[in-house]
From TrEMBL:
Domain of life of the native organism: Bacteria
Residue stretches spanning the membrane: none
Protein name: Cupin-like domain-containing protein
Gene3D superfamilies per UniProt: Cupin
Domain JmjC, chain residue ranges per copy: 116-273
Family matches, as SUPFAM superfamilies: Clavaminate synthase-like
UniProt cross-references to Pfam families, sorted A to Z: Cupin_8
Residues in the signal sequence: none
Length: 338
């Protein structure tokens, strides 16, 4: 395996006001150095972990417990399955945010601290006012803004359907990315039994077992990596695989997810799951025929698939809108309930 992956492309001296124009043009990952370096949260984190905790506490809703993921010290920060994949190596519990923050401070510099990880917590619900004081204008409608808080952690490579802008607000992060076409070399786990909702790579990046996962060497050859400090950000396009590591005893990440499609569109993973149900068991010749159908009706560009049909008669093959999407869902529900 190569000693280190290649770097992620970097952008420097970018004014945040330029993001709305740039984001729609980016189709590959970008590290944006210092993008949120002027946030009060970042200034507090650079002063000390205590100052960062104090900054967060001033926004704490107080009545809503957060979901905290905890793992024993021998997990070494890896949030993952248990040994035989019958369950997981962590547990989740509802805890007041104040207690989580105080516990993280308590375990700073501990030689064998448990992993403590608050993942994907909606900013506006749990920390109202944080976004106003630590602003980010993306030029997209209704992005989902979340905060991630914890100590040293390793989150297995996975992908997200939305585009993602992840901003380091405290601590350091190592981000390792792979193009979507590396799915076959990353040895993904189950789609329907996952640590946090998305299928994850079963390869331990800290000690890859190439006897068990030999194709991972090919994935590693295409990997891109960056270490981010407070104020830095990374843009991760849709479906790019990302392995995230919190490198310090106190880490905070703020991220924004969005999809450049109307809200009424469906989740692509639903189509994949239904395709597994309907197509995977077909004879090879029939699967090839259905691949041709999908290429023609779903993945082809231009009007060739429908040009011969009058516009008023194209139905689902014509431009989709909210009403047509509702009709398609109604038809699917009836068919799936047979």
């Amino acid at each position: 395996m190569p000693a280190t992956p290649g770097p992620i492309d970097e952008v420097r001296d970018l004014d945040r006001s330029q993001l709305p124009a740039l984001l729609p043009t980016w189709t590959t990952p970008k590290v944006i150095r210092g993008l949120v370096g002027d946030w009060p949260m970042v200034a507090a984190a650079q002063a000390s972990a205590d100052a960062a905790v104090a900054h967060l506490k001033q926004y704490d809703h107080g009545t809503l417990p957060v979901t905290a993921t905890t793992a024993p010290p021998d997990a070494q920060g890896r949030i993952f399955y248990n040994a035989d994949m019958s369950g997981f190596n962590f547990r989740r519990e509802q805890i007041p945010l104040k207690v989580v923050l105080d516990t993280l401070l308590k375990y700073r510099n501990a030689p064998a601290a448990p992993t403590i990880y608050v993942a994907s917590t909606t900013l506006d619900s749990f920390l109202p006012g944080f976004r106003q004081d630590n602003p980010m204008a993306l030029g997209v409608d209704d992005p989902l803004a979340s905060i991630w808080i914890g100590n040293r952690s390793r989150i297995a490579a996975h992908h997200d359907v939305p585009d993602n802008l992840a901003c380091v607000a405290a601590g350091r992060r190592r981000v390792t990315l792979f193009p979507p076409d590396q799915v076959g070399n990353l040895y993904m786990g189950p789609l329907d039994f996952t640590p946090a909702g998305q299928a994850v790579s079963l390869v331990d990046f800290a000690a890859p077992d190439l006897d068990r996962f030999p194709r991972f060497e090919r994935a590693w050859a295409s990997a891109q990596v960056a270490e981010l400090g407070p104020g830095d950000a990374v843009f991760i396009p849709s479906l790019w695989w990302h392995h995230m590591e919190g490198l310090d005893d106190f880490n905070v990440l703020v991220n924004y997810w969005w999809r450049p499609v109307p809200a009424w569109t469906d989740a692509p993973m639903n189509a994949l799951m239904l395709s597994l149900l309907a197509l995977r068991s077909l004879p090879p010749a029939q699967r090839r025929h259905w691949r041709a159908m999908f290429d023609h009706f779903v993945f082809a560009t231009g009007a060739d698939a429908t040009a011969h049909i009058p516009e008023h008669a194209r139905g689902v093959l014509g431009p989709l809108d909210e009403a047509m999407a509702a009709n398609v869902r109604s038809v699917l529900r009836k068919r799936l309930e047979r």
